[in-house]
Design brief:
Length: 214
């Protein structure tokens, strides 16, 4: 009994080293890695449920695309930027992070379904990662405060080359359509959020509410 309590105590201490804001992202990564392991089974082919452009059945891939990957190399290449850029968006959006993420996923998937190449299947979290990238860069440009400027410079330095992945001339074997639509979706959401927050800051104070707070 004492040994079990000691193990639980050690686990709690270990979890405390992980920031609360990162735990949800790590849980999502764990889930996606679990799906990729499941996809190794001979009778299972989850990749078939990706976005198939202009196919009615391919619509099911719009919400599923970020959870499916061609192989572990593909998944690994998306994992670290997802954690880094996702954490930045999470810190910026806080309780609206889920809304931001779902919006980017849906807009990215719909856009890919509309403009994707014929007879192609689009899978991977890179569209969402590009969405986070677009969000961060637009917020950094529009906010123009020190924290966002520094964030934009650092993200641009490490991940600026991602822009080439959204161009059709870069590599026809990757889903440049998903990258482009994801980045556009994230940029739009970042622009909209920046406008909303600025509008809230410029609202005149309600004198009645001000008096009631005294």
């Amino acid at each position: 009994m004492l040994e079990e309590e000691s193990n639980l105590s050690n686990q709690k201490r270990w979890i405390n080293f992980i920031p609360l804001s990162l735990r949800g992202l790590l849980a999502a990564v764990t889930f996606v890695w679990g799906l990729e392991i499941l996809d190794l089974l001979p009778a299972i082919n989850l990749d078939a449920f990706g976005v198939r452009p202009r196919s009615i059945l391919g619509l099911i891939g719009i919400p599923l695309m970020p959870f499916l990957h061609g192989d572990f190399s593909h998944l690994l290449s998306n994992t670290f930027p997802f954690l880094v850029l996702g954490w930045i968006v999470l810190r910026a959006e806080k309780e609206n992070f889920i809304v931001a993420t779902v919006t980017i996923i849906l807009l990215c998937g719909i856009g890919t379904w509309l403009i994707g190449r014929n007879n192609s299947v689009h899978i991977g979290a890179s569209g969402l990662v590009y969405g986070y990238f677009g969000y961060v860069m637009v917020r950094a440009f529009m906010e123009r405060n020190l924290a966002w400027i520094v964030t934009g410079i650092v993200v641009g330095f490490f991940y600026g080359s991602m822009i080439f992945g959204a161009l059709p001339v870069y590599n026809q074997e990757i889903s440049w359509e998903g990258h482009l639509c994801g980045m556009a979706a994230g940029a739009w959401f970042g622009w909209r959020r920046s406008k909303e927050l600025k509008a809230l800051k410029n609202l005149p104070l309600d004198p009645l509410n001000s008096l009631s707070d005294l």
